[in-house]
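assembly run, all chains below
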Amino acid sequence: MLKAEQISFRYTHNGPWILRDVSLAIEAGEVVGLSAPSGRGKTTLGKILAGYLPPLTGRVSLNGAPLPKSGYCPVQLIFQHPELAINPRWRMKRVLEEAFVPSAELLRDLGIEAGWLNRWPHELSGGELQRFAVARALGPATRYVIADEMTTMLDANTQAHIWQVVLDHVRRRKLGLLVVSHDAALLGRLCTQIISLPHL
Amino acid sequence: MASVSLKRAPKRVVTFDVFNRRVRTLGMIAFSVAVLAVMMLLAQVLGVDGLQTRLDVRNQPPSWANPFGTDWLGRDMFTRTLQGLTISLRVGLIASALSAVLGLLVGLAAATLGGWVDAAITWLIDLFMSLPHMVALILIAFVFGGGVNGVIASVALTHWTGLARVIRAEVLQLKTADYVQLSARFGHSKMWIARHHLLPHLFPQFVVGLLLLFPHAILHEAGITFIGIGLSPHQPAVGVILSESMRHLSTGYWWLAVLPGLALLVMVKSFDALGENLRALLDPRTAQE
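ok done. output:
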């Protein structure tokens, strides 16, 4: 179980609080939605859950233990903007295989064409790049996935297609999934439970 | 107006565009390197024979025997110019390399140590950049007692700021980049990330920064020598040549200033083109066909 207990966070000393005493828990195999209007700290919470930011107070635990400081993190975050999450000086094959070598099946499911692997990131569209980002996050050691507005910038077709692949993986491998979005309809379709962040 | 549309089709013009961007970039790099190599080779081939005083051929305008003419002592200006450029190149190489390494170290220190170190270095960079270049150059060259050492020290100590800024900004940006943080979440160590993510970004910046320092170093060497605190008048430095030629301009010996000046310009522009095109080649966005 990925658990956040009494998390508080602000970016600067004396700055405004972004999160105040936020608690949530995601079970393995569960799809949880996180919704809130812009600026409420959805991305910040996602980054804290995946270990990118340390919470000021409270703790994040994975099956009772804190997130590992080094080594592969079982909680993987998929960023909203794939073009920032990919090294512009690497070819796509290298980007894809930075964490693990994905199976041909996963690539086919996500619609990643073999020809794309030899291209540079700036030669692919945002939607194409996001498929790589999704593939990269679904490593064999991944237990929880945090999808931060993962498909917001994609068209409806691609969006549906990518979610189908991710949900299929989540079910088969009993992964926990946190869907961060302010699209209520999307969360309603995907999630068993929806959490919203209060206004501070 | 019908006549306008009835004009014959324009002639097919073969332009530079028939080559793709990568070929053009590589071509420009090859051309710049060739120009510089020819200059250096010619200086070696010609040797120093032309530097002998020959009073019987004083003040000759450019001819086949003396392409750049001769000066008031009958020395061949072509030989003098090429020898001068060789010296400039050597001085420029040392000064730029020192300056680039200094910029790299300072930039890295500012970005990785942060806090008051960063604040102090940023302040120092602003201070150096707010000083008029030539004033700082003259002062530092003077402190070092002029000569080759003075030139190298002054150029090295005034030109690190630009590269230091670039390196600092690049490292700061990379440190917080999503893909760098993501790499750590994939279990990669700090050293691995530095080697695979940071270094490939910094290396081109460093090399291009170093190359683009060259023209500055060479021009400033000529500048300091021109005003008399740089290289010794006995050396055939370009600055010395240009400075001496001033005394002979009013007598109509234009070749003493114009031709060495042009040669200096060609050399500087070659380095400039080399740096700019190398930059384009090292960036995947502009490196492709």
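Chain A touches chain B through 23 residues (CB under 8 Å).

Chain A has one domain: 2-196.

not gonna interpret more than that til we talk
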